[in-house]
Design goal:
Order of helices and strands of chain A: HHHHHHHHHHHHHHHHHH
Structural class of chain A: mainly alpha
Shape of chain A: globular
Oligomer: homotetramer
Helix content of chain A: 55-70%
Chain lengths: 363, 363, 363, 363
């Protein structure tokens, strides 16, 4: 084999001629070059290269879940690749610190020449959001409008088609919903579960009422939120209530998927669930890092522009802050702790159940 | 001198007997030890040790600004120490990742034994917030109430006295307000400044209206926010308007201080302002890192508890998220970019002015 | 249960009275307090707290491997806890940046008062090194001597006893050596393996000789190192050669353990090996981070002291640099890539083999 | 002005068509694509983009020091830009963690197709090393040879010309040497300095001999190294001895430059030296981060290849480790602490001196 390998040269392999000739400051067109415009360009180009890598991993993961079944071997690889995305995201978040070495005035020296370009026009970032599961329907109004407006026809069309594809969120929802968690005739998990949760809620109720350090107002607030918790618990077992919560975008997963994920988290230390649990944790971390990135990015923009409008003609940071929370994709995994019981309160998993699940997860 | 030095032993110098015997899990009292409770204890103890260090630096900085005047030499040291705080904060933020290695269920195994203890009871963290300038009046209602309620009498009394002291924010405000920036008879900076800003706002107006990618709605939104920007500009030169904004907590600095800070940022590259500018940047970074910490902390709590109530009897993360923004202390520095002009639009600083300022800053 | 829980107060739970009263600068005894001595104390105290946490995890892992057998469920937990250690180590490494905010002169202001205290006297750090597997026999001479000299009798005695216990390295070596990897009558893995390696070495030989960019000297150097590689390969299958390498401390694992680890790494994507492989990777990362810590620490000491002697009376950084490499514990895992074959060259794992290994790993 | 600005589109501004079409895995040519080759390509491309940014800052700094004189205003900007390089370097070091998510076997799947490409062929990295001051004469033999061999004619010629330019090290050496530190008739700094150092060395001598915890061997070792320290001190004041040390590459700065740097570090808290000191610290940090990068990179290569040869036909990590220390550029700044006195031992700086230096530094 080695005989036929053509010799490779570092610079050609990496196509450095294209890569390193792709920084053309606009400021040069209108006067002396603004020194920091190169930083501005390269920071964004590095982001785009990382986005390409993240999309490379994401699409390979989506391909796996597009299959009829996902076996252990595939899941091992999926977890490995999602962990890589998490590692890359840490860099993306720290990279904001590099942009922050640019002062507002250094930015003002070329900002006006970039109108109306805007980070909202990053196709890859939108592919990332969509691929994970943030489709238009989940976006806040302002975002929904501006989402496609700012793009040229080619990009808009491309993204509109891309949005038709199944997202990782949708595929994971189906994968979880397919799990046979609710059919164990003799193992009455969910009854036991409901009994245990009622005890837990009662004890939380006692904690609040017996807490001398809380004012009456505070107690009322806490008891109200406790009632909401009780309500969301009951929703888990009532299709009608649950679908109402879905319509209010309080939950996104299907009820079946929610229960499966809950089951996996409850028994995460069972070897049989080890990979499935790692997988859920990865998705949560990816969402968390994306949220941290949005938040730090919004603050950086505020520090750079105050309430000045951005190059895209929108006063960036206010808008960006609004999306930080609303664009959370796997928020159900974040809130799942609400429904978790202490190990001590868990019914032991019967061998028969492990076996059925084992079969599902490994074949 | 060296003759009389008593020999020192590592473990005694660091008082490791006290330090390493101070981890007593509550879970042991009620059953088998919860393995992860030690992590929970040590993570919080490390935070408290760093808080002590940060307070050590902060109080030395406060002492400097409590003086009649702050010379270059003192300011050099202040900047060095604030940069140390920033370095420590990066650790504090990353440390959340260590806590996140604890699963919700590992936490549930001992959470109930910690009632009603709560991070709200960290005296040092409140000293840090107060020392920087976050006094009760700036806190949101819920926070205002719970602020002292949860503490025992001794701690409450201590903090109430501590709150009487001048905060760094108050001292910096006075220091800035003292600067003789508005008295330069012949140098008409602020007139020139107003002319320049009007041009800038006009061009922003054009950017928006000429932006084909914006819908009419979006344009309206942007033009409104531009009007707000115009309003805040004019407020800089009208005591009545400005004090209204202060009452609405839109700005916290006094008008004089705001103008001085603005002047320093405008001319930050003048060597004479180098240290003063570094100082302002440090304060902004400290505030930014504190905000990031609050945000990541809130998300970690959500991941750990969902909407379960915390040990202190309050559903943590919702509340914590509310404070993330509202507890910003030096937010005026964050928004200052709103008022900055490009260097090209700046009037050259006359020698006479540099000299007066130089005298103020170095003596 | 909740009824009987005694209320807990944050400050008492964390024993902050002890913790925050444990910083007593020596400089005060001899003159005005050296401001930065507090930083010096707290940085070291934080290190000791983290060391306690790491030892808490490490000893729980050692307990698992002290058992007759290690099942999947236990291994899941072990990997989780080792990953926590890795997360903590990242903090420990970044924390050096905090110490580096102290200038050499700030340190000189109190260094002389700390004589002859020294970081070499950290019992917990030595417990960590010993617990992982760095016992005296593996230390370089200077280190071997100073190892116990600097300690007081109590500490010395404690560590000498501690060193008698089995280290994680020793336990892991036995656990790997126990694996039934060499007994598969019909599955001739190691023969196939040797054939494949010979091909690989031959092709490496061609790569070197055909490389026009290498000078003859360089080629000679590379071909020599290739011969060494060939030698180490053959050592894997010859007890005499292998034990020679062990005596020269070129390898530390037993031959059986080495072969098992190699097998696991070769087939790491087989679900059955997933956990075992994660476990090996964790140990490698822990060793890597410890090495990075030693290296950065040595450089920090150089920046602080140059070639001045440290408080312990030894010129720190030269010595520290010498230990950086020699104190690597799981270096065999680092070098294992030497022996790995591309997946394409691997014989497919027969079902019967997976089953036997599966049985070993899960029961 | 704004009137004439041509509208800019995000993707065109960043030339994403070129950037995102520049990843062509070699593995495709010979069989199925190796999934991780894209990671390998993008990680290296991101490095090259950052290198371009670092070179952008570095060359602007070199331009400043190529001038007759460097005033405060220029130095302010230089420090700002060097700090940016330090911030970027932290990313470059953490980025190694991304590469480490690739397993040795994932790498083996395409390694053979990249022969004989090698990171040694990165022109920008060599420009960075040369620009800072690491010219061929300072490289170890192996490196000296391979330095140009591996390059094609065009690149070799380019670098050979580039190497003729003055490096930052050379320019900084001259800048420091020009400082009028040794001509203060009445201010006998260097005499006072020598008296003080003798006292310090004597007290170090006592510390060692009085240290009960040291064995006689250890004491001898320490006393020898103390003698070396004494020798290096005296070298500062003897041209012949000093130039011997230079020939042995024990020191790189000229004696005049060394003394100036020492003076600045001694009086770093004098406002007049604030910027010059920050500048020296930046250069030290850049060198430190470069060293950490080399060290982590070497360890990553070991983990990936063991003692297998790299694609360039050289067994990477052994060689890389050898360069980690030898390629330090500003090592004199690292060792400078050797020569520092405690503030208490420093003669007060006379006003006349500050003024002369002030004049030199600000004009």
């Amino acid at each position: 084999m080695k005989k036929n390998v053509e010799p490779v040269y570092y610079g050609e392999y990496l196509q450095l001629d294209k890569l390193l000739s792709a920084q053309k400051p606009e400021s040069i067109k209108y006067g002396p070059e603004a020194h920091d415009e190169t930083l501005f360009i390269i920071v964004h180009q590095v982001y785009e290269l990382w986005f390409k890598q993240v999309l490379h991993e994401l699409s390979s993961v989506i391909d796996v879940f597009a299959q009829e079944s996902v076996n252990d071997s595939a899941l091992t690889q999926v977890v490995h690749r999602l962990n890589r995305i998490v590692t890359i995201q840490k860099l993306l978040n720290d990279q904001i610190g590099v942009m922050e070495t640019m002062t507002p005035q250094d930015f003002l020296a070329f900002r006006d020449y970039l109108v109306p370009a805007s980070g909202f026009q990053s196709i890859q970032f939108k592919m990332l959001e969509m691929g994970l599961g943030l489709k238009s329907q989940f976006r806040i109004d302002f975002d929904k409008q501006s989402f496609f407006n700012r793009l040229n026809d080619e990009d808009r069309q491309f993204l509109q088609e891309f949005e038709q594809k199944q997202s990782l969120f949708e595929l994971v929802d189906k994968w979880l919903a397919r799990m046979p968690f609710l059919e164990f005739e003799d193992f009455k998990f969910w009854q036991l579960y409901q009994t245990a949760t009622n005890e837990m809620l009662q004890s939380d109720h006692d904690i609040i009422t017996n807490n001398a350090t809380l004012s009456d107002d505070e107690k009322r607030i806490e008891l109200d939120s406790l009632e909401q918790t009780r309500a969301s618990f009951s929703s888990l077992f009532d299709d009608n209530i649950y679908s109402k919560l879905q319509q209010q975008d309080q939950v996104r997963l299907s009820r079946q998927a929610m229960l499966s994920a809950l089951f996996i988290k409850q028994y995460s230390e069972e070897p049989i669930f080890n990979l499935a649990h790692q997988f859920i944790e990865c998705l949560t971390s990816i969402d968390e890092n994306l949220t941290i990135w949005r938040y730090r990015h919004a603050m950086m923009v505020q520090r750079m522009l105050g309430s000045k409008i951005g190059t895209g003609g929108s006063s960036g940071h206010e808008y960006l802050k609004r999306t930080t929370e609303s664009n959370r994709i796997f928020k159900d995994f974040f809130n799942m702790a609400t429904f978790l019981l202490p190990k001590s309160a868990l019914p032991k998993l019967p061998e028969s159940v492990s076996q059925r699940l084992g079969f599902y997860l490994t074949h």
